[in-house]
Amino acid sequence: MRAEGTPLKGDSTTESTAASSPVATDPAVRVGTAVDDRFEGARLDHAGAMTYGDYLHLDEILGAQHPRSPDHNEMLFIIQHQTSELWIKLMLQELRAARDRITTDDLQPAFKMLARVSRIMEQLVHAWDVLATLTPTEYSALRPYLGSSSGFQSYQYRELEFILGNKKPVMVKPHAHRNDLHERVQRALQAPSLYDEAIRLLVRRGFAIEGTDVERDWSQPREFCETLSQAWLEVYRKPEAHWDLYQLAEEFVDLEDAFRQWRFRHVTTVERIIGFKTGTGGTAGVAYLRKMLDVVLFPELWKVRTDL
Q1: What is the DSSP string of 269-288?
Q2: Which residues, in sequence order, are bridge partners of residue 38?
Q3: What is the pLDDT of residues 66-106, one digit of tens each?
Q4: Which residues neighbour 140 within 8 Å (Cβ) at sequence distance 6 or greater?
Q5: What is the pTM of this model?
Q6: Are 279 and 288 spatial neighbours (Cβ–Cβ below 8 Å)?
Q7: CB-based contacts of 121: which residues, under 8 Å, 6+ apart?
Q8: Does 116 have pLDDT greater than 90?
């Protein structure tokens, strides 16, 4: 005898129900059975294969944070600056490639590259929001452990400034202690900037521009050029006749706009955290950073706004 409703062994209803049960059919939850090597189609056994961590070298990246202080907040400070350097590395790749494209009159790919750099700078603007959670008291606890290290010494940032046209030969000196870095920054100083190549492009398109802006010592800062300003004015007055140059000019303005915002957010974050103390690298801190806000990378393009 069996209780009413209790299935007999071999009952087809019971077997079909058990077979359709996700618990019964999932080998990952069956006791005494081997776990399947796939889940939701994804491979679970990666022995001998390249993994996500292998491809990204995560062991090296995630093992590159070495706080010197016992303070909890130093990890934030380190990761903020390490991630910024990674973004700068990508910006340099894009800007160099864009410069090469401009040199060969291949502007369409350059537009995408320049737009990408502007978006990266927007990303970096928001990164300061995270560092701004560090209070003056918290920063004071870790600052003694920083020694004389400073973002002022970033060789990648110096390369970024140089390719954008802010040339200052004296800024190579902080890297003289390492020949490899010194040579790298020196090459960036002596190469034409992104804007230099755009000027030469205008000449190739038939615009009359002073010779000193076309061939010169690229390591020196360039002065405002009235004939260049007039060339850009012509582009803006007749965009339909010079559409790719018009778009290039707007990409440059977008780029400088984003760069200014990045710099400004840097200044305000530093003032919020350390006030007007001297920087760890010896600069005047906020006072020095505010001076950098006055640097104009593409002055003729900004003047066009007034002249139109």
Answers
A1: HHHHHHTTPPPTTSS-THHH
A2: 43
A3: 999 999 999 999 999 999 999 999 999 999 999 999 999 99
A4: none
A5: 0.84
A6: yes
A7: 91, 255, 258, 259, 261, 262
A8: yes
Domain edges within the chain:
72-147+194-307
Q: Are 65 and 79 in contact (CB under 8 A)?
A: yes
255: left (phi over 0), alpha (psi -120 to 50) or beta: alpha
β partners of residue 42: 39
Q: Which residues lie closer than 8 Å to 193 by C-beta, 6 or more apart?
A: 99, 162, 163, 164, 165, 167, 218
The number of beta carbons lying within 10 Å of the beta carbon of residue 262 is: 19
Out of 3.40.50.11310, 1.20.58.480, 3.30.365.10, 3.40.50.720, which CATH number does the structure's domain 72-147+194-307 have?
Answer: 1.20.58.480
At which residue do the structure tokens 């615009």 appear? 207
Report d(CA 219, CA 228) in Å as an integer. 19
Percent of the chain with pLDDT over 70: 89
DSSP assignments along the chain, one per residue: ---TTPPPTT-HHHHHHHHH-HHHH-TTTSTTSPPPSEETTEE---TTS--HHHHHTHHHHHT-----SS-TTHHHHHHHHHHHHHHHHHHHHHHHHHHHHHHTT-HHHHHHHHHHHHHHHHHHHHHHHHHTTS-HHHHHHHGGGGTT--GGG-HHHHHHHHHTT---GGGGGGGTTSHHHHHHHHHHHHSPPHHHHHHHHHHHTT----GGGTSS-TTSPPPP-HHHHHHHHHHHH-TTTSHHHHHHHHHHHHHHHHHHHHHHHHHHHHHHHHTTPPPTTSS-THHHHHHHTT--S-HHHHHHHHH-
Give 32's contacts (C-beta < 8 A, 6+ positions apart).
none
Quickly count: other Cβ atoms within 10 Å of residue 272's Cβ.
16
208 pLDDT above the threshold of 70: yes
